[in-house]
Amino acid sequence: MPSSFGDLDRLVPRLRAGEEAAFTALYERLVDQLATFAHGQLRDKAAAEDVVQEAFLQFVRNAESFDGDGRQVASWLYRAVRNKCIDRSRSAASRYEADVEVLPSDGELEPPASAALMEATFDPVVAAALDSLTEEQRSVLLLREIDGLDYAEIAEVLGTTRRAAYSAASRARSAMRAALSAAENPASEHRSAP
User: Fold this and answer.
1) Cα(116)–Cα(103) distance, rounded to whole angstroms?
2) Could you tell me the pTM of the whole model?
3) How does DSSP classify residue 119?
4) If 39 and its partner were Cys, which of 23, 48, 162, 181 is the partner (CB 3.0–4.6 Å)?
5) Cβ neighbours, 10 Å, residue 37
6) What is the full DSSP assignment across 129-182?
7) CB–CB of 83/159 below 8 Å?
8) Can you say how many angstroms the Cα of residue 117 is from the centroid of all Cα atoms in its chain?
9) pLDDT tens sequence across 148-178
C-alpha cells in the first residue's frame, strides 16, 4: 500500500542536513493537515496553531538525529501534535507561551489554508459530538476522516497495530453517529430513558 507521505522521502536527507528549504517544504506540506487535526482535538484555532508550531520546532531541533523515512517524519509530527493536544487538554490551567523562535524560512509563512475548513467543520453540534468521544476515538476519527490517513499511518501515529486502528475507527464512527443522532432527536432519548 503506498504511503500518503512517500513524497516526503526526498526531504529526509535534506532535513538531517539542516537545510532551511527542506524544513519550509515539510512545513508547507503538512501544516494544514496538522492544524486541522489539532483544531479537532482542541477546538481552539490559536491553541491548535501553537501546538503545531511547537511540534515543528521540536522536530527542527532534533532533525539531524532523525532516522526514518518520509512516512515516519509525518507520523512523528502527528504524534507530537497529538501529545501536545493531550497535554493542553489535561492541564488547561497551565497555559504556556511557545518559544519565540520561528521556523527557518526566507519569509513569513502563511497561516494554515485550512483555517476556513477548521471553522466550517466543527459547528457546535459536531463539536459536542466530538467531545462525547474518548480521546483515542476523536484522534482516530480526525486522522481518518479529516486528514485522510490510512490505517497503517494511523497505527503508526497512535503506536498501535493496523487492526487496532481500524477497530478504533469503527467504534469512533459508531459513537459519533450515536452522538449526532441523539443531538438531532433529543426527544427520543427522553422516551427511551427508564
Assistant:
1) 23
2) 0.73
3) H
4) 48
5) 29
6) HHHTS-HHHHHHHIIIIIS---HHHHHHHHTS-HHHHHHHHHHHHHHHHHHHHH
7) no
8) 14
9) 899 999 999 988 999 999 999 999 999 989 9
